[in-house]
């Protein structure tokens, strides 16, 4: 009964989602990928490492025998957000995203193209990248009340 009384007097941790949102951890593995088109060489290591096989990459030989990435798609409907593709990329071209609200009405909308993943609007998570984590806001477990 004592435990019940103590918890009864604590401030609430509940948020009125989606109007109020908590700041998530800096090193979270959000359910999206951020792709850096300048660093990607088209080696396909990410595609080979993915246990679900959801990364499809097509390349062609460009100038000076370098690969050019023609198509880069990730089916987030089947992605398990394990982060193996991010860890395996030798050129740091893939990052886990910071977003977690990726609900869609159509299954086809879950397939991300290279243009969507290379968007400047996507925030990179600090997962497997400590230098990025330091630039993100700290995690909050409670909502700051008005007037505090």
Describe this structure in words.
The protein has one domain: Alpha-Beta Plaits. 17% of the residues lie in helices and 16% in strands. It has 5 helices and 5 strands; from the N terminus they run αβαββαββαα. The protein has helices at residues 2-8, 45-49, 84-88, 114-117, 130-133, and strands spanning 33-35, 55-61, 67-75, 94-96, 111-112. A 3-stranded antiparallel beta sheet has the order 2-3-5. The chain has a two-stranded antiparallel ribbon with strand order 1-4. β2 and β3 form a beta hairpin. It is elongated and about 70 Å long. The model has no long low-confidence stretch (mean pLDDT 82).
Give a nutshell description of this structure:
The protein is of the alpha+beta class and 148 residues long. It contains five helices and five strands; from the N terminus they run H-E-H-E-E-H-E-E-H-H.
| Residue windows where pLDDT falls under 50 for at least 5 positions | none
CATH architecture: 2-Layer Sandwich
Mean pLDDT figure = 82
Main beta sheet strand tally, sense and closure: 3 strands, antiparallel
Tell me the distance between the termini: 31 Å
Distinct helical segment count: 5
How many β-strands, per DSSP? 5
* Percentage of β-strand residues: 15-25%
State the secondary-structure class: alpha+beta
Please, what is the oligomeric state? single chain
Give the SSE map:
Blueprint: H1 2-8, E1 33-35, H2 45-49, E2 55-61, E3 67-75, H3 84-88, E4 94-96, E5 111-112, H4 114-117, H5 130-133
Antiparallel strand pairs: 1-4, 2-3, 3-5
């Amino acid at each position: 009964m004592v435990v019940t009384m103590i918890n009864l007097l604590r401030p609430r941790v509940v948020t009125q989602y989606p109007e109020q949102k908590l700041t998530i951890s800096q090193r979270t593995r959000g359910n999206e990928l951020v792709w850096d088109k300048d660093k990607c060489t088209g080696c396909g290591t990410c595609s080979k490492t993915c246990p679900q096989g959801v990364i499809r990459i097509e390349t062609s030989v460009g100038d000076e025998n370098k690969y050019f990435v023609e198509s880069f798609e990730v089916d987030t409907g089947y992605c398990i957000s394990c982060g193996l593709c991010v860890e395996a990329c030798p050129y740091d071209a893939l990052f886990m995203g910071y977003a977690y609200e990726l609900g869609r009405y159509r299954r086809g909308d879950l397939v991300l193209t290279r243009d969507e993943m290379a968007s400047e609007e996507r925030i990179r998570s600090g997962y497997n990248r400590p230098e990025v984590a330091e630039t993100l806001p700290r995690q909050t477990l409670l909502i700051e009340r008005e007037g505090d």
